[in-house]
Amino acid sequence: MDITSGLKIFIASIFTNNILFASFLGMCSFLVCSNRISTALGLGSAVTFVMFFTTIINYLIYYYILVPLGLEFLSFIIFIAVIAAFVQFVEMFVERFSPDLYYALGIFLPLITVNCAILGASLFMVIREYSFGETIFFGLGSGLGWALAITLMAGLREKTGYTNVPRPLRGTGIVMLIAGIIAMTFMGFAGMMSVQ
Amino acid sequence: MAVKLSNTRSYNTVMDGLWRDHPISSMVLGICSALAVSNKVENALAMGAGVIFVLLATGIIVSVLRKLIPRRVRIITYMVTIASFTIIVDRYLDAFYPEIREAIGPYAGLIITNCIIMGRAEAFYIQNNPFQSILDALANGVSYTYTLTSMALIRELLGFGTVLGFRIMPEGFTPWVVMVMAPGAFFVLAVFLWVTRTMARVEPE
User: Fold this and answer.
1) Which of B32, B87, B115 is opposite residue A73, by nearest beta carbon?
2) Does some domain include residue B125?
3) DSSP collapsed to 3 states, chain B
């Protein structure tokens, strides 16, 4: 793998192909946990961490176990099992060795199993036929992109507390409108580079 | 003995799913795929059919086995059930509608993490009998599909000037490119929430 294609994927998965604003993944926890910046940062870092490792593990399982056996159609069930098991393992590991980190991240970890961004990253990796090196950059970049998105939204949402939003739009509605505007600004990066 | 229709349990189950507890607008579940797949009407219909199938199958399996599933492992049970039926949907699309599967991309696989199915399994199927669960699955699936399809109608009409591939808008119409791209999805959903919540007078959270 040459380093430029990896870097290109890394930058593109943070900005131009941001997993939340371009692919709409991980919306559920994005809507629920974007009330405060500190919560958003905690969840964002937990997602980055889990996404980075699960894409790598799923890459190895997919190309070294499922493909040789001709079992590609089982990939959904295997990926979700790997994610659930990894999250469980990390939770036990962190609880045992770093209680501080556990208190910071612990409450977010169970939420992550059902975060579609994590599964989506693994599925994109297969559909876009990334090499192993590219997968590393893609997993890290997508996680950071998601963390960036939720932190931006939390910052803006703290401000909407002081504004007079029409009643039916409060809560989810206004978040959607803000997300649309942020998505437009992220589209501005599209001239820079893109991956498919 | 004549029972008023609006008092029966089945009627309430269906109405909850179709309107009162509408999965997208009142509970904000399953947003990811609602945003991503609503760029064209045919994709929305295919996705809706897939979700209805998986919901129905999960509803039947979970409600039939509800007394046998130990509480501690119920989440994993839902996941395995949902994942198995999602694989069936994916295989079916691959065999008969490869273009649609290509267009939907990873979102067919993401039916697994669609919170509507997980949410209904946890909230309803694990406590109710198969008949009520089937009604609930149909109601929720249909309301998911009509939401997706109506969003897709707006986005396809304004973004491409077509509906289901047929040209509707006059020749000189300039397509609103933003509608088929990501921001359009957010705006259309925001307006949709605004309209339905005004109509239903939902109290904001």
Assistant:
1) B87
2) yes
3) CCCCHHHCHHHHHHHHHHHHCCCCCCCCCCHHHHHHCCCCHHHHHHHHHHHHHHHHHHHHHHHHCCCCCCHHHHHHHHHHHHHHHHHHHHHHHHHHCHHHHHHHHHHCHHHCCCHHHHHHHHHHHCCCCHHHHHHHHHHHHHHHHHHHHHHHHHHHHHHHCEECCEECCCCCCCCCHHHHCHHHHHHHHHHHHHHHHHHHCCCCC
